[in-house]
């Protein structure tokens, strides 16, 4: 099978910094693929290696089966939407979008009509004559998208494209990007540090930590069956239980994950465990309750409306056996 993007043992080291450390990864054609990880985990470097703006220290990247080692960026079927949009401030929106076609030597009328087509696609038909400075953040984001798509890439790389937008607009753009990707049928490689964004948008997610992929799978697999403590904690802030506590609570003697929303508060006599209530935080949609079990803190997400335990008193905890998930690897 030919993959859209195929990393074979790829590393990119900057002196002692292993920005990307022996990554192997296959992205399928037409996939919405998310790279998720904290700041500094190597996500942007991976995109730069795919686009050809940077080269691996070792290993190879194939793009649609072709070894890309010697291909300059403009010979790759790939375009990038940059984190800061990188629009030209002195050019109007239409010329910004048409820029890549000018570089390719397309004639002016073709350029402008294709630019207008892309502006319509991102719902900015009426804004072609404006300068980027006369647009809102969300509109600038769409221009950046149109400017990348006008080149008809087979793979679109998006580097934290929604990071600068407020929550409401971000959620709206998440849906629009997802439906745009379906309409176009091209491969999206979407970089984010926001786990909710990755889980809600992607077909598959690669979780990065310190230049390595620690887990790769569907959003369900990543959330329900985290492989390591890092994944359990980074994706959804799970309770990470050391082996002895897991065993004591009826699980196996391995590092285990127990999601806060999988736990309910009950009377101590009906409980699998009990602890002292330390704090209750109201978060709008849920209450977050923290309990002390010996030397361990356990976090519980309790739906609003469910009776709250009293701080300082003992409360019981219950969960379904399957919710206590043992991980392969510490
Ligand atoms: P992310 O996008 O996940 O935040 P990056 O890929 O930008 O992470 O960076 C990964 C690591 O590589 C960081 O420690 C960063 O400081 C380092 N790095 C990235 N680019 C360079 C560079 N050009 N020179 C030196 N170090 C770099
Ligand atoms: Mg980055």
Summed up:
With 330 residues, the chain is an alpha+beta fold. 27% of the residues lie in helices and 31% in strands. The strands form four sheets. Strands 6-7-8-3-9-10 form a six-stranded mixed sheet, with helices on both faces. It has a five-stranded antiparallel sheet with strand order 13-17-14-15-16, with no helix packed on it. A four-stranded antiparallel sheet has the order 2-1-4-5, covered by helices on one side.
**How many beta-strand elements?**
18
Q: Could you report the average pLDDT, rounded to the nearest whole number?
A: 94
CATH class of the largest domain reads: Alpha Beta
CATH architecture assignment of the largest domain: 3-Layer(aba) Sandwich
What profile does the largest beta sheet have?
A: 6 strands, mixed
CA-CA gap between termini: 33 Å
Inertia-based shape = elongated
Order of helices and strands: EEEHEEEHHHEHEHEEHHEHEEEEEEE
Give structural notes:
By secondary structure, this protein is of the alpha+beta class. The protein folds into two domains: 5-231, 3-Layer(aba) Sandwich (Rossmann fold); 237-326, Nucleic acid-binding proteins (OB fold (Dihydrolipoamide Acetyltransferase, E2P), Beta Barrel), CATH 2.40.50. 27% of the residues lie in helices and 31% in strands. It has helices at 43-51, 93-103, 108-121, 137-149, 167-184, 195-201, 219-224, 229-234, 243-248, and strands spanning 5-14, 17-27, 32-36, 58-63, 66-67, 78-81, 155-159, 187-192, 204-209, 212-217, 239-241, 256-258, 264-266, 273-282, 286-293, 296-303, 314-318, 325-326. The protein has a six-stranded mixed sheet with strand order 6-7-8-3-9-10, with helices on both faces. It has a five-stranded antiparallel sheet with strand order 13-17-14-15-16, with no helix packed on it. A four-stranded antiparallel sheet has the order 2-1-4-5, with helices on one face. Strand 1 (5-14) and strand 2 (17-27) form a beta hairpin. The structure holds adenosine-5'-diphosphate and magnesium ion. Residues 43-44 line the site of magnesium ion.
């Amino acid at each position: 099978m030919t993959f859209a993007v195929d990393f074979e043992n790829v590393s990119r080291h900057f002196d002692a910094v292993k920005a990307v450390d022996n990554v192997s990864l296959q992205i399928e054609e037409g996939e919405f693929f998310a790279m998720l990880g904290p700041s500094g985990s190597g996500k942007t470097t991976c995109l730069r290696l795919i686009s050809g703006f940077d080269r691996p220290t070792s290993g190879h990247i194939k793009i649609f089966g072709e070894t890309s080692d010697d291909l300059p960026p403009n010979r790759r079927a790939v375009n990038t939407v940059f984190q800061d949009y990188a629009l030209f401030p002195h050019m109007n929106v239409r010329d910004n979008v048409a820029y890549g076609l000018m570089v390719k030597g397309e004639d002016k009328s073709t350029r402008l009509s294709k630019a207008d087509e892309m502006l319509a696609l991102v719902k900015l038909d009426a804004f072609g004559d404006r300068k980027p400075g006369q647009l809102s953040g969300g509109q600038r984001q769409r221009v950046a998208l149109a400017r990348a798509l006008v080149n008809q890439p087979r793979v679109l790389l998006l580097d934290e494209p929604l990071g600068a937008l407020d929550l409401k607009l971000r959620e709206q753009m998440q849906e629009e990007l997802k439906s745009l990707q379906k309409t176009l049928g091209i491969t999206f490689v979407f970089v984010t540090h926001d786990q909710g964004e990755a889980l809600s948008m992607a077909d598959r997610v690669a979780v990065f930590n310190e230049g390595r992929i620690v887990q790769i799978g569907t959003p369900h697999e990543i959330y329900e069956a985290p492989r390591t403590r890092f994944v359990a904690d980074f994706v959804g802030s799970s309770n990470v239980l050391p082996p002895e506590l897991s065993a004591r609570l009826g699980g196996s003697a391995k590092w285990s994950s127990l999601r806060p929303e999988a736990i309910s508060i009950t009377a101590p006599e009906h409980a699998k465990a009990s602890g002292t209530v330390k704090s209750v935080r109201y978060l709008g949609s849920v209450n977050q309750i923290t309990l002390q079990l010996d030397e361990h803190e356990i976090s519980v997400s309790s739906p609003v409306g469910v009776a709250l335990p009293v701080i300082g008193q003992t409360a019981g905890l219950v969960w379904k056996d399957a919710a206590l998930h043992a991980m392969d690897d510490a």
